[in-house]
Amino acid sequence: MTAMPDTPVPRTPKARLEHAAQRLSKVADALGHEQLAQTVVADARRRLDDGRVRAVILGEIKHGKSSLLNALLGEALLPVGVTPTTGAVVAIRSAATAGDGSEPGTYLLEADGGRTPVDAERFATLARGKAEDEAGREPELLVDPERLPSAVELIDTPGFNDIDRFRAALSRSELPRADVLVLVLDATQVLSRSELRLITDAVAAVGGLDESGGAKLLVVINRIDLVPEDERERVIAHSREGLSSVLPGPLDIYCVDSKSALREGGGSADSELEAVRALAAVRARLFGFAREGAAILPARARSAMLRQARLLGYNASFQARALYLERDALSRELAAVESTLAAREHDLDGLRKRIPAAGETIVSASKERIAAFRGELEESALAQIHKADLSTLTQVIPGAIQDAFLEFARQESERLRGELEALTREIFATHGELAHRRLVEAMMPLGFRGPGLYVEPPAVIVEVGTLALGLVGTIIWYLGSTVTGMVMTIASPLTTVILREKTVRDARAQVRDALPGALDAATDQLGAIIDKLVARHGDALDDHLMLADLSLSEQLLTALRTAQERLDRHEAQLRVHAAATDAATEIEPAKAEVEVEVEADADADAEPSKAAPEAAPEPKDASKDSKEGEDTPAEQAAKRLRERVAVVAQAELNGLEAQLDALITELRSIELDREAEDPSGDDEDAPVLH
């Protein structure tokens, strides 16, 4: 009996996600983004192997984020005070996760995971943002395992409205890596506009909540003790109403008093104070995510990789644009970007605010041009209608109006393309690939058909009228008196003339009546297309800014440098290939020349009179043959080489983009097992003491 072949065992969702992370990391490396490649692998390992849920604490300055964390931990381990305290990202982890035997205490964490102990005073200075570690290490607080589950890590962040915008941007850099967002509001000044923008950006940065992106959200209103009890329900209602405008689904809002809870050693569910019991509920919910890691983390890993793939797609687009720049132009571009970035760091908040403002200016100017064009077109059309005959009214004028609109739309498309590219260059300080490859819809005529202006053909009405008069005259001629019949028959052509004039007047009136509505419909359609186009472009720019975050400057330079390196590599390979090809092709002609010489010598011995060679033609002067203004053969060869290099480099880049597309498709196809075994182990059921 023949043995049946082994059936391949389907890979688990976890294995597929890990494999996708490795592939995505390789693509990032190939695109020159080594740091992003490391982040992809590190985040996948934390989520899929270590099973650690990352909770990021967000809020504006002086809202008590650090006080909340101290209360959750049951001890004042983070610096607090009357001035803004957290000026850097601070990671808080259980000492059980260290893996290197590190005891609870304060450390500086290396990029490779190594730890260096630091005294409490230095730690506080770094955490407050009063100084920066010269090696770029991250302040880390390791706590007793009894205070924090090993499967949960907490990230304290600077206030988002800190005067130092760098700190705010640094906070946002942690958002994409978050699994849980804890939004801290102040009961005395709850839910400002900036906080609504914060939470909107935060949800977008993590890729969405629950089903869409797998992230979780907790809303904590701190310092509720400063609000009279009869006003607290109003504070909660106001918060719920504001948040519901930007967040889908129901929200759990916790009103806490962190300071009172800390005085009670962290607070408990049995406290006499409702605000302290609420903090205990926050702790239970937050630390309870440790037991939900098997459901939360695979979804978060997939969402993060989809985000990272999208970011790599943007950067590949920038690099693709750079491939087609002249080498000197690319060098100048790189130097200009380096100079710009050296002069000032990208202010992400400022850049993001400029995008919608610039978009409104572009749209406003476009609508003014459309309105002016409409007025001129209507005036010109009415002048033509006043003297037009039937054929012109029914055939020429509608087509002319549509052609005029389409030509204006084409010109407006080119103007908008230039303005959007200028905006992109201003935002990114480099060539705007988003205005070239990813916004093909800027060619608005492809989606714009011009105004529809229909005039009923009056010639048919005239013919029917003439026929009716002729029949009437004939009938009267036979059935009535001769005089009457003759009168009608003679009158028929005259009446036809009168009817024709009346029909032309009616047609002119019809066109005049229909023209304003047709022009309004056309301008509305064109305006809607422009609104949508500019909004899409702004969204794409904003999306890239949010995805790139603090690494934006580095990524722009990396795209240009990698493009230059890619071109250099392919040019060198093509030159080697061309040299080898030339050497091979020179061998055959040399053999042929030798054979010809041998035959010629033989002929010369036989017939000396025929052996005398003709005078060799003078070599041509290439400079004489080339017309003035044309490239020399050497220049043409160099141009062809540049074109071949760009094509080969683009083909390589297309392959990487195809891999990204395939990865995105595969990631979306993975069916996550919500009932999978908790990868974090059984130790999360151990009690957490306060």
TrEMBL record:
Basic and acidic residues bias spans: 617-630
Keywords: Coiled coil, GTP-binding, Hydrolase, Membrane, Nucleotide-binding
One Pfam match: Dynamin_N
Region (Disordered): 585-639
Molecular function terms, GO-annotated: GTP binding; GTPase activity
Protein's cellular compartments: Membrane
Domain called Dynamin N-terminal: residue spans: 56-204
Cellular component annotations (GO), alphabetically ordered: membrane
Record-level GO BP terms: mitochondrial fusion
InterPro entries: Dynamin_N, Mitofusin_fam, P-loop_NTPase
Main location: membrane
Acidic residues bias spans: 595-606
Coiled-coil ranges per UniProt: 553-580, 646-673
Protein name: Probable GTP-binding protein
